[in-house]
Amino acid sequence: MSVYRTPSPPDRPHPPAPAGAAPAARPARDVDIISHSLEQTRRIGARLAALLQPGDLILLEGAFGAGKTSFTQGIARGLGVGSDYITSPTFTLINEYENGRLPLYHVDLYRLEAPDQVRDLGLLDYIEGDGVTVIEWPERAKGLLPDGFLQIILTDLTDTKRALRFHAEGSRYVELAEQFKDQAFAQGAVGEGGAGYPHGDPAR
Ligand SMILES: Nc1ncnc2c1ncn2[C@@H]1O[C@H](COP(=O)(O)OP(=O)(O)O)[C@@H](O)[C@H]1O
Ligand SMILES: [Mg+2]
Asked: What is the pLDDT of residues 137-193, one digit of tens each?
């Protein structure tokens, strides 16, 4: 069945927004998780990996030792890369792992000398490709990355405890964050808002 829609004249002004309405915003979503161990951070990464699709972009922010590479090891495990030997790429800036469910492009921009070096790396080609791109230190490429992504900010709380804040920008990543949260809660493995483990943490 076809539906006829009255074409709107191009010069018709938009109706005024109702008083007090929030301005139209890109969809966004935040989810907060606490990890109590290295292994748990990897497991959270592995759970996220199960939901990833070709072309997904994950940005990992946080100080040295916050757990960005550990989280990436978990993603690799969850994709079935079959190696725990995931170390931060240093000279090449990008490491590729092709033997999992999806290709994994692990990028560390810490040593990026200037933001436009991102072009020489062909980073956008990786991101637009068929794999999952995980970037440590994405701040170094500010303004040059796509505007849809899942950002995870890791903060050390103690020697063994890390806060992970998931911030989704764009509808694909809001959906991903929602799926991740539903699945994580269903398995009783992670708590939101730092609440810990509502049913205990069986695998800690
Ligand atoms: N809950 C935790 N999650 C992640 N790493 C942890 C945790 N507790 C302790 N660690 C330690 O913190 C360090 C994290 O290192 P790494 O993942 O390389 O950080 P980054 O890539 O952010 O510099 C490792 O030595 C790891 O053993
Ligand atoms: Mg690292």
From this structure: 999 998 899 999 999 999 999 999 999 999 999 999 999 999 999 987 676 555 444
Domain that holds residue 99: 28-186
Q: What is the pLDDT of residues 111-138, one digit of tens each?
A: 888 888 888 889 999 999 999 999 999 9
CATH number at residue 84: 3.40.50.300
Tell whether 170 is covered by a domain: yes
Write the DSSP symbol of residue 140.
Answer: G
Probe target for ligand 1 pocket from 37, 38, 87, 152, with the most ligand atoms within 8 Å of CB: 38
Non-local CB neighbours of 203 within 8 Å, separated by 6+ positions: 39, 40, 43, 189
8 A C-beta contact, residue 31 and residue 166 = yes
Q: Which ligand is nearest to the CA of 61?
A: 1
Neighbours of 182 (CB within 10 A): 10
Q: Is residue 197 part of a domain?
A: no
Identify the nearest ligand to the CA of 90 by its number: 2
Asked if residue 92 has its Cβ within 6 Å of ligand 1, the reply is: no
* pTM, full prediction: 0.82
